[in-house]
Design brief:
Layout: E1 2-8, H1 9-19, E2 24-27, H2 34-45, E3 52-55, H3 59-71, E4 76-80, H4 82-87, H5 91-97, E5 103-108, H6 122-125, E6 133-136, H7 140-154, E7 163-168, E8 176-182, H8 184-190, H9 214-246, E9 254-257, E10 264-269, H10 272-285, E11 290-295, E12 297-299, H11 303-307, E13 315-320, H12 330-339, E14 345-350, H13 360-374, E15 382-384
Parallel strand pairs: 2-3, 2-4, 4-5, 5-7, 6-7, 10-11, 10-13, 13-14, 14-15
Antiparallel strand pairs: 1-8, 6-12, 9-11
Helix pairs in contact: 1-2, 1-7, 3-5, 7-9
């Protein structure tokens, strides 16, 4: 099936790019993404991979180069983080609107100011309306597998949309775990070479990234929306197919953990899901009916899935490693809107900002507050946990 190695999630993602036989890698370093593109350079130097490695002058240029490569029909990859992703912001809708299936790994990191190099999810979630499919992973193994799945998804004829695979900075990017590296032959079977008619061809000239007026702009956006609806189904199908070949699957859009008879549930995004599992197991041993829902796909968002949960749980806590200032955590907004359920009590836990540790003690506190809220003790809908000082003191 493959071999096992002790890898950081950045290295695991790099293996995913190598196994996907990317043809162009556009690289610009930024902490904590740098080791990913360095590992890809190692593969090239050691003869373990064969792609064009472009060292560019900025993050904006990195995505522009990947876009240009994809326009020529090449399987393209780039990576970034935090301010680098924000610098790419102008290019994100160019790539998605032109329907070129670039895959990017974003190593989630807090954005300035104050300056911070540690991991929260504000960078990616700020880009959720850019037209990119957005997948969040829990582990290095999932990072490797998600990159391979991302190419299969992005290049699907009914989708043709770029994919951003997100992994938590430092929590995953610089910590090591045992990862299974799949056999190249099996990956080739799962992921065939990229072919598309949406490319520049001297023998068949066409215009790409063209200009349209008001009469047709909406129709183009409708086509993008329809592609995301196709992607909802394809994410599930591709993950299931991957599971049959490689023995690992992740639930598609979401993964449930011990939710069948649960009364109180935490909703997690990214690496914190691993710690939540431990807490769920510990509370289950005490007879408490708790569970977890891990969201993998933020765009497309699994709104139908959450709508199906209306009335199932007494309370739900949504962990947000970001905040939309003046409102609430982004994931909380999405879940609450999709469920629109008056019988379930919701709490939005803002935690992990700037890489702040989300400990087991903090997660146990979240479950305790959920039980209190469900029993009628009303609490603020949005709660910042683990503050070092109260505002004004």
């Amino acid at each position: 099936m493959g071999k096992k190695a002790f890898l950081s999630a950045n290295e695991a993602a790099a293996h995913g790019v190598r196994l996907s036989r990317a043809q162009v890698v556009a690289a610009y370093p930024i902490t904590p993404q740098t080791t990913l593109v360095e590992k890809l350079a190692d593969f090239l130097a050691n003869g373990e991979a064969d792609f064009n490695y472009m060292m560019v002058e900025s993050e904006h240029s990195a995505l522009a180069a990947a876009h240009g490569a994809s326009m020529m029909g090449a399987r393209a990859f780039t990576a970034s983080s935090s301010q680098g992703l924000l610098y790419m912001c102008e290019m994100l809708p160019y790539v998605s609107g032109a329907r070129h299936p670039v895959v990017m790994v974003d190593i989630n990191r807090a954005t300035a100011t104050p300056w911070n190099i540690y991991g929260d999810q504000r960078d990616a979630l700020a880009m959720r309306d850019s037209g990119w499919i957005m997948i969040f992973v829990e582990s290095g193994q999932e990072a490797l597998d998600a990159v391979i799945q991302a190419y299969k998804l992005a290049e699907d004829a009914g989708v043709m949309t770029p994919v951003m695979v997100n992994l938590d900075g430092f929590t995953l990017s610089h910590t090591y775990d045992l990862v299974e590296i799949p056999d190249q032959g099996l990956v080739d079977e799962f992921l065939p070479p990229f072919t598309t008619t949406n490319r520049m061809d001297m023998n068949d000239p066409k215009a790409l990234c063209d200009i349209v007026g008001p009469n047709f702009h909406t129709e183009v956006r409708v086509m993008q929306q329809e592609a995301f609806e196709v992607a909802k189904r394809k994410i599930v199908e591709i993950d299931a197919e991957y599971g049959k070949i490689f023995g690992r699957s992740y639930g598609g859009l979401v993964e449930e953990y011990k939710t069948d008879d649960a009364e109180h549930v935490l909703v997690a995004l990214g690496s914190v899901a691993g710690t939540v599992r431990v807490c769920v197991d510990a509370l289950r041993e005490k007879g408490e009916k708790v569970g977890m829902i891990k969201v993998r796909s933020v765009r497309p968002f699994p709104k139908e899935y959450f709508a199906s949960l209306r009335g199932k749980f007494k309370s739900m806590g949504i962990i947000s490693k970001d905040i939309s200032f003046g409102y609430e955590g982004t994931l909380f907004t999405e879940v609450k809107a999709a469920m629109s359920c008056p019988t379930t009590k919701f709490i939005n836990y803002i935690a992990g900002l700037g890489g702040r540790d989300i400990s087991k003690a903090l997660l146990f506190e979240m479950f305790d507050k959920l039980k209190q809220n469900a029993s009628g003790k009303e609490m603020d809908e949005v709660q910042f946990l683990g503050l070092r000082w109260e505002y004004g003191n």
